[in-house]
Amino acid sequence: MDVYGLIGNPVGHSLSPPMHEAGYDELGLDATYVTFEPPADEGAAAVEAANRLGVAGLNVTIPFKQDVLDAVDPDPLAERIGAVNTIDFTGDAPQGYNTDAVGAVRALSHHGVALSGTAVVVGAGGAGRAASFGLADEGMDVHIANRTASKADALAEDVPGATGHGLDSLGDLLADADVLVNCTSVGMDEDATPVPAPALHGDLAVLDAVYSPVETRLLQDAASAGATTVDGAWMLLYQGVEAFERWTGETAPVEAMNAALRAGL
Ligand code: NAP
Hints:
Number of strands: 12
Radius of gyration: 18 Å
Distance between the termini: 28 Å
Structural class: alpha/beta
Largest sheet: 6 strands, mixed
Order of helices and strands: EHEHEEHEEHEHEHEHEEHEHH
Number of helices: 10
Bound molecules: NADP nicotinamide-adenine-dinucleotide phosphate
Helix content: 25-40%
């Protein structure tokens, strides 16, 4: 049996186990997915231990996504983002990937959103970094707006063609934008939004990385403005789908994985 898993701290409420298990069941794979919660300063040690124990693949979440870079051979995208969320142990050395970037891109594509024109990414933390690189690599012009404007500026220096801003620029930036991605934690378990409702309009596609609740205040405001909306569970689904496909070499059963994920939300 192939053992896959997730390291994070905490990992108690992760929806990744039912999502991946549903994929193994659907394809009849002899595999299982378990969670591990190492101490917060032992991410790299946990990766080395998992490798020795014969674990086939690991997902990595907060707070370990940066720490494990030293324990793996990161692919070019993970290296540019500076974070790893997926590790494959089946080669000579552990290979590190970042599937959050592809997760954002595939979530939008699934909803028929054209990845051309201008994207505004709100937030410059881990999710903001991943989404910014993912959309820029698709050829979009990316503007990054963050509460701490200096972090947006620093990220924009790394992302090809990107510009950095404070949140006070959101109205101007969104007027001509095609895609908006919220990568702040604003709206998570609260009725709040990082984007003033009047800045939203019907020509936008809006992806909210926040998935708890699924219908955030931002997505409700975006729907009222006539925008296309994509909830954060789609991004979570597709980062998992991308990891599943890298590990198993199979086309992931997206519908079964989506159903299991949404049953847990
Ligand atoms: P992070 O690295 O801690 O970054 C947090 C971001 O939120 C920063 O840009 C921060 O701005 C901003 N922020 C926090 N509180 C704010 C406030 N009150 N007003 C304005 N901005 C605020 O976190 P992360 O890993 O990027 O995650 C961000 C969110 O995305 C979380 O809700 C997470 O669950 C979600 N996420 C979802 C997926 C998915 O697959 N759907 C994947 C990854 C993350 P400052 O820099 O100014 O502090």
